[in-house]
Write a structure and sequence with these properties.
alpha/beta, seven-stranded parallel β-sheet, 31 helices, about 40% helix
């Protein structure tokens, strides 16, 4: 059929389909009418597919190149690329896209290329003035020769900014503006650029070359700060350093700036300078927690929102918000969506304290994007493992971070650490006080021997059947001492004034809950209404925690003490905090500095010019920290009290302390109702029960807003607006659900998801990706990011299923296991043949794949 006939047939059958659907509504459950509807829909789908192919064929037949050669005479290799450039990127054949155009070698180049009279590139992309922007060679049979041809004669003659080399499996890309170490090789990409995108890159490079002075807004960073009465000159130095490095073509940069010195404001001023000068169009700001994403948009980039739009992007909105100048994203989310974004999408990536463990190696995610990257960190030094010793995982992540940002030597591009910040009066000095209970001393020196514990609720004795010994590092992880929590609470009361703000770091969620209970027992008389004197902040996404943190920021409002494992160790700006307290150990120097840094901000409004570290486990001593500029360590031994819980009818445990099993709140969902300054805890329910409530309420609700969203969810790839998302979250928080987005992420074990993702999942419209599906997507990203040959890519695709299945099932895998099955070996080839294709290094590729995908998905 011709195109006109197909269009008319589609129209006729669409009218017929409407009648069949109407008949089906009148006769629900009728297999006759449902069959008619299904068959008609399938036929319309076939017709539309045929229509699409007819239009493509017609386009191919119409277009010509500048030398008069018809595109439909092009090779089968060239045609798909040409159609992709025309249909997806807007290039026009014979106008901005030239096919096999002939270019004569000019006299001044004949000496260099005596054997060539002319060249005929496969595809040339040019602007409307005829200036060549890119050349595409579409045959990599002789890869080295083809790439050399692009880098030499084609570049010398046509002077294109961009070079592409394509094959059946790859698109290789090179930018002639690249400088330094990154200028050496072609890089694999998954996309081309449009004319507009190429012109923008060219204009940006011209502005860089012009060396025009760039204005920095000192009202945001680098100017006079009335809080401390002087200029924050170091912020200005930092911004200028990064801009100069960016203009010089440096691809990896690191800023080491201590907590409290204004990294976020420095980053905002840097972004404004780069966007305002035209050196960049779109910047990505990466954080490691949702709380920090919200904070970055609301408190950071809001400072420049009039000039440059910023948006927090998620799995459900990133396509709709692609035009914002500044994208803020959580690293978990970026892991899911990075391969859906073009490699050239961003001009700069700024990464804020991203030490968090995620499902794949951060290197893969950042290497996908072909743009400079800047890391921000408050960690003062690299920690390396001595031979035969172990290094804490967080410190290993910090080492990786330094490597990710080109700082393997430990020398960042700009440095202003805590020592210097305190010395120059930009940060508050501190004094550590060690307060060790006899239990902690015993655990540290000899370990605690015990053969029973107390049941957490009823406090009856549970015999363990054999003696156990706990060292201090293990105390309060699997077994918690209630008595020691009470000792800490009593010492807090002795060493602080009522109402002073304290952040107390524990070792687990359950430990933090017990610490808060003990503190409230000591400080509170009336426990009828939340917030209490002390609250546990143990889950970053929970609406309750967001509310508690907002209240904790206010100097004269409860809670006065918050207990936390690590949610409050980074990215929390609470200047009025006067005490940092440690009830748990860490081996990580980086984490220790981060935790101490929560207290270093000066706060003249509340009269805070210094702070105190209360150390209940000897952590400061272990870190060899005597508090710069403070008095010598004030060491004190805390004796345990005589209080013992009385349990009628049960034997009393011996000793001056009690150990209880560590209950795991991670398997419960705490539902709360918040009204103004009042918090009512509704219940703590199992995850499966919370899922059932959410899914049942969603399906049966007739509330207009949610009913409308459920209808829109039927559309393919519908993107909800900000207002619709706000209404969905509001509905979630009300009876009968009492849930929030964080609860849903915990319930479905999908921290990257948005409320919209969970709505689609619950309605059966779009299932949350399984672990295997998530690995597969990043596996394909891996083989299309790094420099593999076509043959190697084909092999890696063939082993994808066995590799990802093993990882998703938490099983180990090596090259011998892959080839251990004779049937599988027959499908993909022998190990020796495959190993030859990888130059004898196939085992190294497998090991690198395992390293890339051994992240948090399998914890």
């Amino acid at each position: 059929m011709k195109i006109e006939e197909i269009l008319q047939t589609i129209k006729t059958f669409e009218e017929t389909l409407k009648r069949y659907k109407s008949d089906l509504e009148k006769n629900p459950g009728s297999t006759f009418y449902s069959g008619l509807v299904k068959n008609t829909e399938e036929y319309i789908k076939e017709l539309k597919g045929e229509l699409k192919q007819q239009k493509l064929d017609e386009n191919i037949g119409k277009v010509f190149t500048g030398n008069g050669k018809k595109i439909n005479e092009a090779t089968s290799t060239d045609l798909p690329i040409i159609l992709k450039l025309v249909n997806e990127y807007g290039w026009k054949v014979g106008d901005t896209l030239l096919y096999q155009q002939i270019y004569d070698i000019p006299e001044n180049l004949k000496r260099d290329y005596p054997n060539l009279k002319n060249i005929r590139p496969d595809i040339v992309l040019q602007d409307l003035n005829g200036e060549v922007l890119a050349v595409i060679e579409n045959n990599l049979d002789k890869e080295n020769k083809d790439l050399l041809k692009l880098r030499t004669v084609i570049t010398h003659l046509l002077k294109p900014r961009f070079l592409y080399a394509c094959s059946a499996e790859r698109i290789l890309f090179y930018d002639n503006a690249w400088k330094g170490l990154d200028a050496g090789e072609f890089k694999q990409v998954t996309n081309f650029m449009s004319l507009e995108e190429m012109r923008l890159k060219v204009e940006q490079q011209k502005k860089i070359a012009s060396n025009k002075e760039i204005t920095i807004d000192t009202t945001i960073a680098g100017g006079f700060d009335p809080t401390i009465g002087k200029e924050r000159y170091y912020q200005l130095q930092c911004i200028r350093t990064i801009i100069e490095n960016y203009k010089a073509g440096k691809q990896k940069m690191l800023i080491h700036m201590a907590t409290g010195l204004g990294k976020t404001r420095t980053a905002v001023a840097l972004v404004k300078a780069l966007l305002g000068s035209g050196l960049t169009k779109r910047i990505l700001f990466v954080v490691d927690r949702r709380m920090l994403a919200k904070q970055s948009v609301d408190d950071g980039f809001a400072l420049i929102s009039r000039e440059h739009t910023s948006s927090w992007i998620t799995t459900s909105n990133f396509r709709a918000r692609k035009h914002a100048s500044i994208h803020v994203v959580v690293i978990d989310t970026l892991e899911l969506i990075h391969s859906d974004l073009p490699s050239n999408f961003y001009d700069l990536i700024i990464v804020d304290e991203c030490h968090r463990s995620i499902n794949v190696n951060r290197k893969l995610i950042f290497d996908h994007f072909l743009c400079p990257r800047v890391g921000l960190t408050a960690t003062p030094r690299i920690v390396t493992a001595k031979e035969g010793t172990e290094v804490d995982e967080e410190d290993l992540a910090i080492i990786d971070t330094y490597k990710l940002f080109g700082c393997e030597t430990g020398e960042p591009d700009f440095q202003f650490d805590m020592d210097r910040g305190i010395s120059e009066g930009f940060l508050a000095p501190y004094k550590p006080i060690e307060l060790l209970s006899s239990l902690v001393q015993e655990a540290e020196e000899n370990g605690i021997t015990f053969d029973h514990v107390l049941e957490p609720q009823e406090k009856y004795v549970i015999a363990l059947g054999a003696e156990k010994k706990l060292k201090l590092e293990q105390l309060n992880r699997k077994f918690i001492s209630e008595e020691n929590c009470l000792r800490i609470a009593e010492e807090l009361k002795k060493n602080t004034q009522y109402g002073e703000k304290v952040i107390l770091f524990g070792v687990s969620q359950a430990h933090c809950i017990e610490l808060a209970k003990a503190i409230n027992k000591v400080f509170e008389k009336d426990l009828s209404e939340k917030p209490y004197y002390a609250e546990a902040v143990i889950s970053e996404n929970n609406e309750l925690n967001e509310t508690l943190k907002a209240w904790f920021k206010k100097p004269y409002q409860k809670p006065y003490v918050v207990t936390s494992v690590d949610i409050l160790s980074t990215g929390v700006d609470i200047p009025c905090v006067r005490y940092i307290a440690f009830a748990g150990l860490t081996k990580s120097v980086g984490k220790y500095i981060q935790m101490v840094g929560r207290g270093t901000r000066l706060d003249p409004k509340t009269g805070k010019f210094s702070f105190t570290v209360l150390d209940f486990v000897g952590l400061c001593r272990r870190m060899e920290d005597n508090g710069k500029g403070t008095l010598k360590e004030n060491k004190k031994i805390v004796k345990p009290g005589n209080q013992k819980p009385k349990v009628p009818g049960t034997p009393q445990p011996k000793g001056d302390y009690f150990l209880i099993d560590n209950p795991d709140p991670a398997h419960l969902i705490q539902r709360v109702e918040i009204h103004g300054d009042t918090i009512i805890v509704k219940d703590n329910i199992p995850i499966e029960e919370a899922k059932r409530i959410f899914e049942e309420e969603l399906k049966k609700t007739q509330e207009p807003v949610i009913a409308d969203l459920k209808e829109k969810a039927k559309q393919d790839d519908y993107q909800p607006t900000d207002q619709e998302m706000a209404k969905l979250l509001d509905w979630l928080s009300k009876p009968n659900t009492f849930l929030d987005e964080g609860h849903l992420q915990k319930m479905y074990d999908f921290p990257e998801g948005s409320a919209w993702d969970f709505l689609l999942h619950a309605l059966g419209k779009k299932k949350i990706p399984t672990p295997k599906e998530r690995i597969e997507k990043n596996y394909l990203s891996y083989i299309h990011t790094y420099n593999f040959t076509d043959e190697q890519i084909i092999v890696l695709k063939k082993i994808k299923d066995v590799f990802t299945s093993n990882l998703a099932s938490k099983r180990t895998i090596d090259e011998k296991e892959i080839f251990g099955n004779p049937i599988y070996e027959k499908l993909i080839g022998s190990y020796n043949d495959i190993n030859k294709k990888f130059d004898g290094k196939f085992n190294l590729v497998i090991n690198d794949l395992k390293k890339t995908f051994q992240g948090g998905l399998y914890h």
